[in-house]
Design brief:
heterodimer, A: about 375 residues, mainly beta, Neuraminidase, four-stranded antiparallel β-sheet, 24 strands, about 35% strand, globular, B: about 170 residues, mainly alpha, Rna Polymerase Sigma Factor, Chain: A, Arc Repressor Mutant, subunit A, about 75% helix, about 0% strand
Chain lengths: ~375, ~170
C-alpha cells in the first residue's frame, strides 16, 4: 500500500461532510452550544456573530437567547463559602483549579484569555497574564513559598509569582524520566511543608490506547532524582494529607472488584499512597460506599461527563470525595463512610438527568 | 487595513468555521467535541482579533487556536477519561464508505492512538497541506523535530496498520 496516499485519502474522507453550526442572516449562530463568556477585554462583541455568552460553568445547554454579559471578572463574588466545611465549585459559584488550604487561596485560570486569578473568600488577591513559557491551566499548584505558584514549562517545572513573573526553575534534569515519552504533566502538588513536590504525568496517547500509563513522582524541593511512587492509567487530583504522610490520587478503572464480585462500569478509585520515612511506599485503595453499603460510584451512564474530585479535611482525619448523590466523607485511615452530603446541600447534580454537571471541584476550608 | 470587528466576525465565522471544525475533528476524533472546540476557538478569536495587525493572519491564528484547544482537551481528560474512552469505543465502530474500508478504518484508529503531537504533525502535513516550516511553527518545534514526529508517526501507522491487515 502507499501509506502517504492512504493517509491523505483517509483524512479527507473523514473530514468530508463535517460542518460547523450554521450562521443565520442576523449574524448569530443558531443553536450554538453555550460554552464560554464572550465578553472579554470590555469589547462588546457578544451581540455580533457568535452567540456564545453568559456564564455557564460546565453545563451544556442549547440556546438562541441573546448574550448576557457577566459581571466584571474583578467583581465576581465567591458565594456561600463556609469555614470548616466542604465546598464545591458548584455551590461556590466559582470554578477554581487549585486550592491552598493553609492560606485559604484559590487559583483560577481563564484559558480563553490566558489570565490567571488568585482569590480568597473576600475576593480577588491577584491577577496576571500567564508567562508564554509555561502552561498555567492544568497542573498549577500553590507553593512552594508564599505568593508562589508552580506550573509546568517545556521539559521543566517552574515557579512563578503572583505577579506572573517566573522566579526560578526547579532543578529537575530535562533528561529526567519525568519528561520522557512526551508525557505532559497532569498535576502538581506541594507537600504541606513545601519540601516535596508530587508530579503526575501521562503520555498523550490516543483514545483507549493500552500504552497510556500514567506515573506519579516525588521530587525534593532542591531537585535531585525524582522518585517513582505510582504507575497506573490516568492518575489525577493529587492531594497531600495535612501531615504530609499520605498522598491521595484518583484513578479510574473499567472494572473493579467489590466483595469478590467484578463490576463493570465507571469506577474511579481513590488511592492513598502511604509515605513513611525509610519505608517503601504503600498504595491502598479506599473504596467508597454509600450509606446503604453499595459502591458509591456506580451507575454513571455511558457518555456522561462526571467530575471526580477529593479534598482532605484540615485535621487530616477525613477525605471528601464526590460520589453518586453528593459528596462522601470517608475515613482517611481505612476509607469507611463517615458522613454524606446530598446533592441538594452542596448544589451538585450527581444523580438523575442532570448528573453531567457533578459537583465540580472540592475544597475543605479550615476553621478560622 | 485592519478588519473591523465584530462587523466581519460573522463573515469570518462563515468562511472558516467548517475548516476549523474539520481540523478539530481530525485531531480529536469526536464530532461533538470538534464543534465545542470550534466554538471555543472563535470565542478566543473574538477577544483577540481586534488586536491583530495583519488580518491575513487570522486564519492561521484560528488554526493555531484549534490545535491548542484540541491539545487542551486531551489534558482535560484526567477528569473526563471515562467519557472519552466510551465515546472513542463508539467511534472505532464507525465505518467509512468507499475505498478500502478496512484500511481506512485501521488508519483512523491508529491515527488516534498516536501521541497528540505526532497526530498533529500528520494532520497538518497530510490534510492541511502545510509546509514543514509552517507545521513546525504551529507545533512550536524545530523543522527537524517536526520531521522526526512525522516520521515516527508514519512508521507507527505503517507497522500497526500492516499488522492489523495481516491478522
Amino acid at each position: 500500500m502507499n501509506l502517504d496516499q492512504d493517509v491523505r485519502a483517509m483524512l479527507r474522507e473523514r473530514a468530508d461532510g463535517v460542518v460547523a453550526a450554521p450562521v443565520v442572516p442576523d449574524g448569530t449562530v443558531r443553536r450554538v452550544r453555550v460554552r464560554k463568556a464572550l465578553w472579554t477585554g470590555g469589547v462588546a462583541l457578544g451581540v455580533a456573530a457568535i452567540a456564545v455568552a453568559g456564564a455557564f460553568a460546565r453545563s451544556a445547554m442549547w440556546t438562541d437567547a441573546a448574550p448576557v454579559p457577566p459581571a466584571d471578572e474583578t467583581e465576581q463574588e465567591i458565594q456561600q463559602m463556609r469555614n470548616g466545611q466542604i465546598i464545591t465549585s458548584a455551590n461556590a459559584g466559582q470554578e477554581w483549579h487549585a486550592f491552598d488550604q493553609n492560606a485559604g487561596l484559590f487559583y483560577y485560570f481563564k484559558y480563553w484569555t490566558e489570565r490567571a486569578f488568585v482569590f480568597d473568600q473576600d475576593g480577588p488577591v491577584a491577577k496576571f497574564d500567564c508567562p508564554p513559557s509555561v502552561d498555567c491551566e492544568f497542573a498549577t499548584a500553590f507553593g512552594p513559598g508564599p505568593e508562589e505558584l508552580t506550573v509546568p514549562g517545556d521539559q521543566s517545572v517552574q515557579v512563578i509569582g503572583f505577579d506572573g513573573k517566573v522566579r526560578h526553575t526547579l532543578e529537575i534534569s530535562p533528561d529526567s524520566p519525568v519528561f520522557i515519552d512526551e508525557a505532559p504533566i497532569t498535576d502538581l502538588a506541594w507537600s504541606p511543608d513545601g519540601n516535596r513536590l508530587a508530579i503526575s504525568n501521562e503520555p498523550d496517547c490516543g483514545y483507549g490506547s493500552d500504552a497510556c500509563e500514567g506515573k506519579v513522582w516525588i521530587v525534593e524541593r532542591d531537585g535531585g532524582e525524582p522518585q517513582l511512587v505510582f504507575t497506573e492509567r490516568a492518575p489525577a487530583d493529587l492531594a497531600w494529607s495535612p501531615d504530609g504522610r499520605s498522598l491521595t490520587l484518583l484513578v479510574s478503572s473499567d472494572v473493579v472488584e467489590f466483595d469478590d464480585i467484578a463490576h463493570d462500569g465507571v469506577w474511579p478509585r481513590l488511592v492513598a499512597l502511604r509515605l513513611q520515612p525509610g519505608q517503601p511506599v504503600r498504595a491502598e485503595t479506599l473504596h467508597v460506599y454509600d450509606d446503604v453499603g453499595l459502591p458509591a460510584w456506580n451507575d454513571v451512564p455511558d457518555g456522561w461527563r462526571f467530575y471526580f474530585a477529593s479534598a482532605w479535611s484540615p485535621d487530616g482525619s477525613r477525605i471528601a470525595v464526590t460520589s453518586k448523590g453528593g459528596v462522601s466523607e470517608i475515613s482517611a485511615e481505612d476509607g469507611h463512610l463517615l458522613a454524606r452530603h446530598s446533592d441538594e446541600s452542596l448544589d451538585c447534580e450527581t444523580s438523575g438527568a442532570n448528573a453531567r454537571r457533578g459537583c465540580g471541584l472540592l475544597a475543605w476550608l479550615p476553621e478560622h | 487595513m485592519r478588519q473591523s470587528w465584530p462587523g466581519e466576525l460573522g463573515e469570518f465565522y462563515a468562511m472558516h468555521a467548517d475548516s476549523a471544525k474539520r481540523l478539530a475533528y481530525l485531531l480529536t476524533g469526536d464530532k461533538e467535541l470538534a464543534e465545542d472546540i470550534t466554538q471555543d476557538a472563535f470565542v478566543k478569536i473574538a477577544g483577540r482579533l481586534g488586536g491583530l495587525r495583519n488580518p491575513d493572519a487570522s486564519a492561521a491564528y484560528l488554526r493555531q487556536t484549534v490545535v491548542n484547544l484540541s491539545r487542551s482537551h486531551f489534558r482535560r481528560k484526567r477528569v473526563e477519561r471515562t467519557y472519552l474512552q466510551r465515546e472513542a469505543s463508539m467511534h472505532r465502530t464507525e465505518t467509512v464508505e468507499g475505498r478500502d474500508v478496512l484500511v481506512a478504518d485501521g488508519l483512523w484508529n491508529e491515527l488516534h492512538r498516536l501521541a497528540y503531537r505526532q497526530r498533529c504533525a500528520v494532520v497538518l502535513r497530510y490534510y492541511e497541506d502545510l509546509s514543514e516550516q509552517q507545521s513546525a511553527e504551529l507545533l512550536g518545534c524545530s523543522v527537524g523535530a517536526l520531521k522526526a514526529l512525522t516520521n515516527r508517526a508514519m512508521e507507527q501507522l505503517r507497522a500497526n496498520v500492516g499488522s492489523e491487515a495481516r491478522s
